[in-house]
Structure formats: C-alpha cells, structure tokens
Fold this protein.
Amino acid sequence: MSDEELMCKYQEGDVGAMDELLIRYRNPLYRFAFRLSRNAAEAEDIAQEVFLKIHQFRNDYRPVGKFRTWIFSIAHNLCISKIRRTKWLVFWPRKHDAPDELMDFESPDPSPQQVASGNEMSEIVKRCIQGLPFLQKEALILREYENLDYHEIGQILHKPVGTIKTLLYRARVQLKNTLLPYMGPEGGYNV
Amino acid sequence: MFKRHVVKELSAYLDNQLSERRAKKVKAHLDSCAVCVQELCRLKQLSEALKTWSLPGLSPDFDNGVKNEIVRAELQKGEVTMKKRTLAILIPSSALAMILVIAFLGSMQLYVKRGMQGRFKSAADEIRESYSQPVIRLSGGSKQQHADAAYGPYDVNGIGGDIKRNAKMVSGVVRTGMISNEGNAEYDGGWSGADSMSVVSGKDYPAQTTTEPGQGPVIIVAPVLPATGEGEKIIRTANVSLEVEDGREAFKKASLVCQELGGYLASSNFYKDKEGRQGGTITMRIPQDRFLIALDRINSLGKVESSYANSQDVSQEYANLNTQLGTAMIVYNKMLEALQKRQVTIPEATRLESELTPIRKRIEDLKNKIEYLNNAVSFTTITVNFREPLVSEKVLKENKRSIQENMLTAKINCLKLFANAIKNMPAIIATVLLLAAVLAIAYLFVYLVIRLIKRG
C-alpha cells in the first residue's frame, strides 16, 4: 500500500495507518532532522512534531502530490522554525545561561588537531556538512541521504529545479574542497 | 558533445537528474575529456565519503511518544475549542461594548458642548446663592432681626441683648409682643427696667422698609416714648458700650444719629490703642421724645456689650423750686412795690435795697436750677462707648468670604476639568491608539533590522 493510500486511510479514521506511516518515516525524518539540527534530542522532537502535525492537519491533506514530499516539507518548516527560535534566543542571551552554551560558535572547518584526535571520517563529514549554508545543506541531505530527486527537493524547499541543481553543485564543490585533503587519490581516506 | 568542460553538469549527471539528451552529450564529452572524468570520480568519491556519516539510533519509545502526543493534542483540542467558543462570545461582546462606550463618549461630548456652559452657570449661581442669604433687620422696639424667610418666625435681638421673640410679618406690619418693665417679661434691657414704671402695651406699629446695599431690607419701627404723666419731670440717661467693626465709621454714624435727631454732642473723644484698635466715647444730648429712637439707632451701630439706662424723677424738686421761686417772686415784687410807692428816707431805701438783693439772687438761682432741670429733662444724655474687637469680624468675614470664593472657584475649576476630560476623551483614546500603532511599527522595524543583521 502506498504512502498516499495509508494517509487517506488515516484520514478516514484508521489508526493503524499511522503505525505504518511511523514505521516507514520515523527513521528518515529523524535522520533528516538530526543532520539539520544539533543533537539527537532536538531531532527526535522535530520528528515527533512532524507526526503530530500530520495528525493535526490530516484533513487538509490532498493526495495530489507525493506524501513523501508533503511530510518532508513539514519537517523542513519545523526545522526552520526551530532554527529561527534558536537564533532569537542566541541573539538575546538569558541572564543565567552558561555563556559557553550560547556562544559556542565553533568554526565549521575541522581543525587539524580535531582531525588528528578524532580520526574519524564521519565526524569530518558531519562538520563539513554543518558548515554549509542551510539551503545547500538541506538540498544535499535530501539528495545524498534520502535519495530524493531534484523535483521533490524543489517542492520541499519551495525552489525551482534549476536552483536545486545549483545548490547541490555548490554544496559539492565546497565539500570537495574541504574534504579533498582527507580523501586519497585512489579512493579511501587519509584520516 | 560539449566542447568545453562539463564540470557544472557533472553533479546532476551523477544524480541522474539530467534530461536524456543532455545526459548523452555529457557522456560523450566524458569519453574524450580526462579532466571531467577525474572530476566525476571525485564527486563519486565524495558521495561515498558522505555516506560514512553515521547517526545514533532512534529512541525505542519514539512511537509511543508520538501516540501520547497525539492523544494529548486531542485532549487539548477540546480546550482549544472551548477557548474558541469563549472567544467567539468575548470578541463580539467586547466589540459591542466598545461601540457602546464610543457612543456614550460621543453623546457625552455633545452633551458637554451644548449644555455645559449653561449648566455650569446655573450650578455656579446656585452655589453663590447658597453663600449669600437675605438679611432682614428690624429696628425700633426690636433690634436686628435675621429672618430665614419673609414669612415665618424670626429672632429679635433686643437692645438689652437677650430678647427673643417670635412674630410674623403680616402685610408689612410688625406685630410685637407685650413689653413691660416689671422685670419678668421678654424685655430684659437694663434701660427699661429701672425707675420708670411706665408700661408699653403691645400694639401694631407701622413698618417702614428701607434697603441698605448688600444687607437686604431694613424695617424701621417708630418707637413711642413711655408716658411720663402730666407735669412729671424725668431726667433720662443711658450708657451704651458697643463693639464695632470700624471705630471711625461708628464715630461718624453716632454723630450723624445725634444730628439727625435734633441733638448735640456734649463731649467726644476718639483714640487708637496699642493694638491699633480704634475706639472712643461720645456723650450726646438728645431730645427726650427721641430718646428711644436714638438708643435703637445707636445699638444698631455694633454689637451691644452693655447697655444701661437710668430715669431720675425730678418732678418734686422741680415743683419745690417753682414754689420757692413763686414765693421769692411775691416777696420780691411786694418789696419792690413798697419801695416804688412809698416815700422812704435814704437810709430806709438803702436797707430795702440791701434786702432785695439776696432775694433777687435767690430768684436767679432758682430760675437757673429750674432752667437746668428743664434742660436735663428735655434733653436726655446718652453716653456711647465704642471700640473695635480684638479679632475684627470684618477681617473674619472677609477671610470667610475669600475662602468661600476660593472654594467656589475650586469647585467650578474641578467641574471644568472633569468636563474637559470627558470632552477630550475620544481624542485621548485616539492618541493612545496612534501611539500604540507607532510603537508597534517601531518594534516591527527593529525586529526586521535585527533579523536582517542576523542573516548577514
């Protein structure tokens, strides 16, 4: 049964459809949110909230587009809201907050010391991706990890396909430049 | 085939997102371009590297958490619906209330504009009237009377100071009560309770009404002198002490009273003490038939502190003097006749002459005494002592009046202020709303600027 059919069933009151949707999308949404946010707890909250929004707006859903696009666009909007809220809080630091919690603006590029000590390509990739501009990062994540095509990514990010193409190209160029020193000439990694 | 490098197309080519025609061209270019092939390899390598980003696993309670959140949302939905219903009632009610308030304010404004001036004027007049009550003064047999109304009971302060009567004004005639000098009646003045046994029975006196500026009508009742009887000779004296507001004015008025009643000033003195109070003493001689009128008018000059009147009956003395004079005149006439008719010798004439001289002297003395008594009887003596009080009532009255005027002004100002506040209420509300709008715009502007700065 397709995602759209499941959603229609849930619209009709089939609670079991939500269970199936949870099984299908909990991990993709969590991964997407995790890669865009800072930590696992925040990502879990976002993913949970996505399903809550699906429940709240189930009657507004029309099976004209792909369900996957709809659910990722909800996640995209929630991530943006979260980031905006975080920015606001950062801009107006609370009096009793620990300064290092709010002023932790580390350089996105991995320092040689960190690379030497961490010795893990995963951490390097993470830091490099987090150093990308938000839209490039989002487009890259949706493409590389969720395997969405450009059209779907454009619908999620509300951008034309050409823009998505450019975003991905720029993201890859930047990543290539930052990750190149860690990649061997014949494949493999120099970390 | 692309002649130039297709580095920019490689990303989409790798993702298989190029159109079929374009993908063929890129593929053809890659067959002949080692640089682009190398770039494609790097992109593939990069893609592989990106796959190494491992993630922590999802919490096992995630599904339960989602379901719990859904249940909670359902429960909250009822509250939200309730809130929506409440708002659905509250918002129209508030709007209606606002409309009513605005309509009320508008009507108040119109009301204030149209009627405020006239209403304030009438209110101010009422307040003024409450501070200025009419004073009816009754002089004559009774003294100063403060009447609450034209028709009604009133109190009369007699010249003795303690007389209280109830009377009614009937057709311009003041009906006074019985006045007797026997000591137990209403009249308690010292001047009337002395030697004189005369009785004044109650009767209607024609009233005259005059008006003094600022003091209301004054009714003067012409008094009747107590009868002294045929041939009776009574010397009347009175001593009045007054507390007056203005010593100089009192002196002038007393002199004027004396002059108007046909009397004369026997003596007078005027002084000013250390505290600056003016005072004086006037001794005036007033024809006996105007004695009571004079007393009334003098008592009306100020507050009577003490009043003393004395009547001395000199009828017997007067009769004796007249008899002695008559006898002396007979002796004198007979001796003079004898002296004129008889032929007497010089020594005898000298003796008669020497006898006539004391008789003549006695006659002159008796005549002088009679003349003195006549004078004393026909002109009564009134001594008036007057002085200003320690604390001048004039000043007190002025202060009181000033306070009342200030209070009146303050009341009127308060009313005006209140009226202005009501009148300007719509403008104030509009100003507040405008200010709120400006602040909101300013806040929005600052918020947008901060947002732009944050975005870089």
In short: Chain B has a mean pLDDT of 73. Chain B is about 55% helix and 20% strand.
